[in-house]
Amino acid sequence: MSTYKTDLQKYSNTPTECEAIWGVELRDAKRKSRWPAWCDVAQSLTGFLLALFLFCHMAFTSSIQAGRDTFWNLIAFSGGYFFDGEEHLWMHVVLIGTISILVIVHALMALRRFPTSWRMFRNIRGHYNFLTHRDTTLWIIQIVTAVVLTGMVFAHVTPMITNPGELDPNLSSVHTYHNGLVWTFIFLCATELHGMIGLYRLAVKWDLWGIANHRETLRKVMYVLVVFMIGCGSLTMWTYYSYGKYLVQTDQVEKYEPQVNWYK
Questions:
Q1: How far is CA 97 from the centre of its chain?
Q2: Structural domains of the chain, ranges and CATH numbers in brackets
Q3: DSSP code, position 192
Q4: CA pair distance 91, 186, nearest whole angstrom
Q5: Across 27-31, 144-148, 235-239, least confident range
Q6: What is the pLDDT of residues 76-107, one digit of tens each?
């Protein structure tokens, strides 16, 4: 039986500094919900999967540097061409749709942390100016890039879902040309910054194998990855843009016919 005589006595606990920061010793709370914890796990898991996808996506798109045939064959693989020598467009839709669902779930879970009023934004800004902590700076960058990606990512994936047949070296290049270098570069930087910073923050947050004790080294690795990914992406972006410009100006906008087919 509880030793408390009244609710006022029961719930009048004043949390210590440690309790306020870490959220421990919450035995006097009226309700204990596990949903915040599950949402946090969902955000971390979807973020981790999307960050891994960024590496795969970079390798996939950068394959055009090895030739249009290489890029075409990789697209054909994701379309199940190796099954029967035919491209199955629905497989592209399933793959891109799955990634889109991960993006939506991740965004919804992350919205819990976004400032929803001017007062919250002012408090965050004051906290940032007072501490001038590098991890806080990285978190601010993640918020900014998240806002940018919210307006750009669905414009990127929607054409691939609605017209999967246009996943092609020629048509993808033309699409990049029409989007322009500025739009594509902003999208590239926002994506890679958000993803690589996210991986760093996940490593620190969950502290697997005591990795958070090497935070400075982790940051350096993260900086190298950001430069590497944006550098590779910029070269690939220029290749697509240049080839797309050539196709449009010479009026040769049509699907690519491979010279080398890995599946025949």
A1: 15
A2: 1-32 (no CATH), 37-249 (1.20.1300.10)
A3: H
A4: 29
A5: 27-31
A6: 998 888 888 888 899 999 999 999 999 999 99
64 vs 61: CA distance, rounded Å = 6
Distances (CA, A) of 42 to 36, 97, 108, 129, 243: 10, 18, 10, 30, 40
Q: What is the pLDDT of residues 161-177, one digit of tens each?
A: 999 888 899 999 999 99
- Distance (Å, whole) CA 219 – CA 224: 9
**Per the structure block, which two tokens stand in for 144?**
């900014």
The residue length of the chain stands at 264
How far are the Cα atoms of 80, 108, 205 from residue 62, in angstroms, in the given order? Answer: 20, 30, 31
Q: Examine the pLDDT at 28 and tell me if it is beyond 70.
A: no
Return the biggest CA–CA distance within the chain: 86
